[in-house]
TrEMBL record:
Alphabetically ordered keywords of this record: Metal-binding, Oxidoreductase, Zinc
This protein's name: L-iditol 2-dehydrogenase
Species of the source: Sphingomonas trueperi
Listed InterPro entries: ADH-like_C, ADH-like_N, ADH_Zn_CS, ER, GroES-like_sf, NAD(P)-bd_dom_sf, Zn_alcohol_dh
Alphabetized GO MF terms: L-iditol 2-dehydrogenase (NAD+) activity; zinc ion binding
The keyword Oxidoreductase is assigned to this record: yes
Enzyme class: oxidoreductase
Cofactor(s) the record lists: Zn(2+)
Enzyme Commission number(s) from the entry: 1.1.1.14
All copies of domain Enoyl reductase (ER), residue ranges: 10-346
Length: 350
């Protein structure tokens, strides 16, 4: 099969590699039809990572079942599926209680199978294959990993109707967070430096949009909340912007409010000065959020499929570019330079 392998310089080369085979009777092989490029992928773009060299990357994907093991009952060949790529070891204390997003072996486990979206075929256990309703296309479904991340963050936040919310970042995660907050009855301020991202946030229902200019966002949230500040702030930018966006999040939140950290950190020790006295004396809660898993009885990945099918979430307005796998480097360049290209969600079609 064709697959895009990570190179020593952090780009990709498309080559022929061996197709994966089913390792167990309850596993499934799917042909990938659409794979997305997310912020985590972009943080590794053009950065030498020796441990990723020659690896197949990508974790936002949807496809068509082509082969099933003898014990598979959940899907059959020809089914269109969203492939959930958050796969833990299945044996640790966290996996046993469906908190597999916290599994200590999460990344090595998922990279060995389901988290290989930039290839023609992937394999995974049947419980990670979610059948798609007829109205949801492969490109729609490729966004639903992102939306599950947002849903998990909202569940952790305890957001309720009439909440006053600020969302920092209007990429796919920030826009997904916006749609979920609006569907739950919140008033939302969306903050992003990119004009087309702010315009899209407004189109998707943001009550106010704002660039992160010094003091402007703070003034806007105070005006929205009778001078109190946001009940909940979602930091959805992450990466190299975190030293600016996390302090901003703590300035936007009210006394007794919550900051949910959805955007990802880079690896290693990162020094980010915060007003710790104000945070402590105001009893502000900082909530880290990582991927998704189950909320009570419900798989969050399956929940966002239902929300999209019922019209609570939108996808097509976010899908700005599509590329074939052979043009993966161009796709990454387009996604990275979003101010120039107008990119929001960039997909790879196969």
């Amino acid at each position: 099969m064709k697959a895009a392998l990570k190179t020593a310089d952090g780009r990709f080369t498309v080559v022929e590699v061996e197709e994966p085979t089913l390792p167990a009777a309850d596993w499934v092989k799917t042909r990938v039809r659409m794979a997305g490029i997310c912020g985590t992928d972009l943080r590794h773009w053009e950065k030498p990572d020796q441990h990723l060299r020659c690896c197949i990357m990508g974790h936002e994907l949807a496809g068509e079942v082509v082969e099933v093991g003898a014990d598979v009952t959940r899907v059959r060949p020809g089914d269109r599926v969203l492939i959930e790529s958050v796969l833990g070891c299945g044996h640790c204390d966290w996996c046993r209680v469906q908190q597999y997003n916290r599994c200590p072996d999460l990344y090595p486990t998922r990279r060995a199978s389901v988290s290989r979206a930039y290839a023609e075929f992937v394999i995974g256990p049947q419980h990670k294959m979610h059948k798609l309703p007829a109205a949801i296309g492969f490109d729609d479904a490729a966004l639903l990993d992102t939306y599950a991340v947002c849903l998990h963050a909202q569940h952790l936040s305890g957001l309720t109707i009439n909440a006053k919310v600020a969302i920092i970042g209007a990429g796919p995660i920030g826009l997904g967070q916006l749609m979920l907050a609006k569907a739950s009855g919140a008033d939302v301020l969306s903050i992003d430096p990119v004009p087309h991202a702010r315009a899209l946030a407004q189109d998707l229902g943001a009550d106010e949009v704002m660039p992160p200019e010094k003091g402007a966002a703070e003034d806007a949230i105070l005006a929205m909340t009778d001078g109190r500040g946001a009940d909940i702030v979602f930091e959805c930018s992450g990466g190299e912007t975190m030293p600016q966006t996390l302090p901003l999040a703590t300035r936007l939140v009210r006394r007794g409010g919550k900051v949910v950290i959805v955007g990802g950190f880079d690896a290693g020790d990162i020094a980010i000065p915060l007003e710790w006295q104000r945070i402590q004396m105001s009893e502000i809660t900082l909530i880290p959020s990582a991927s998704f898993a189950f909320h009570d009885l419900y798989a969050e990945q399956a929940e966002v499929i239902e929300l999209l099918a019922r019209g609570k979430l939108q996808t097509q307005k976010l899908i700005s570019h599509r590329f074939p796998l052979e043009r993966i480097n161009e796709a990454f360049e387009t996604a990275k330079d979003k101010t120039r290209t107008g990119a929001t969600f960039v997909g790879l079609c196969m």
